[in-house]
Amino acid sequence: MKEIKFLVAIVLGGLANAASAQSSVTLYGIIDLSLSRENNSSGIATRMESGVLNGSRFGLKGTEDLGGGLAARFQLEGGINADDGSSAQGGRHFGRTAWVGLEGGFGQVRLGRQYTPIYLTLLNVDPFGGAFKGDMALRNWFNNGGARIDNTVAYYSPTVGGFSASALYELGEVPGKNSASRTIGLSLGYSSGPVVLAAAYNRRDNAMGTDNERAGFVGGSYDFGPLRIHAAYDDVRGSNVLPSAPVHINDAMLGVSAPVGPGRLLASYIRKTDKLHADSDAHQ
Questions:
Q1: In terms of domains, do 29 and 148 share one?
Q2: Is the pLDDT reported for residue 139 higher than 70?
Q3: Do 251 and 151 share a structural domain?
Q4: Are 176 and 275 in the same domain?
């Protein structure tokens, strides 16, 4: 039996022979802690919470000029539960993102653990912009496709005339069945002046490759000056687990953001409609 392997690699490292190459590495992070008081059926509890406004994190990101208009880039970012010092994202060292890529006039290609196009599209129109307590996807609103996916190849186009696009493919890594545990994501965006428009599609195949869950998303915002109006809608149907457990859900959001002094006022209303299960609708 012969085993044949095809290997495509992007490696970022020191280029000893390229004296003219320019490189930079940035260490960055956020520590977000708050005190909260909760009163529920279990009683009253005062808690310290990590990541109320933004997820606590630390990271490294860098670039190396390869010449000829090409640059190698990387980003490693780990989530932190700052209240006890443990790692977030299930204990992963770099659970938020871990990728290496090549950038040029064609755009950017990345390999690794990355954000899905549908999630990035959502963040672009969410008035909370990923802030933890108001973030729609992490609070079970517009929660389709996942925020981050392992083993992905992604392409990000340059912006031309206000338009940009991205595509992502997750390798399911199931021998003999490329469609199993696979994710395909696409997005198209437009931004010019006060207008932001966005659309995205996400498809997740189950572990057997026999069924899939499909999500379509459209959204946008318009800046009137004193305030910006936000809106989004999605349709999710199918199943990425078993054909016997399908879903058909719609989410709709209206929001507003406005500058107030040195900060911003943020508000949104979200409605989830479950078309297959009774008494399963929700709103926030």
A1: no
A2: no
A3: yes
A4: yes
Taking only the tens place, the pLDDT of each residue in 203-244 is 998 888 788 889 999 999 999 999 999 999 999 998 866 556
Asked if 148 and 270 sit in the same domain, the reply is: yes
Structural domain boundaries enclosing 115: 105-284
Mean pLDDT for 84-101 is: 92
Are 127 and 158 found together in one domain? Answer: yes
Is the confidence at residue 17, as pLDDT, over 80? Answer: no
Do 87 and 115 fall within a single domain?
Answer: no
Residue 40 shares a structural domain with residue 128: no
pLDDT at 166: 98
Asked whether the predicted pLDDT for residue 153 surpasses 90, the reply is yes
Q: How far is CA 119 from CA 44, 67, 154, in A?
A: 35, 33, 14
**Token pair of 261 as six digits:** 């002094």
Structural domain count, the chain: 2
Model pTM score: 0.84
The identity of residue 146, as a single letter, is: G
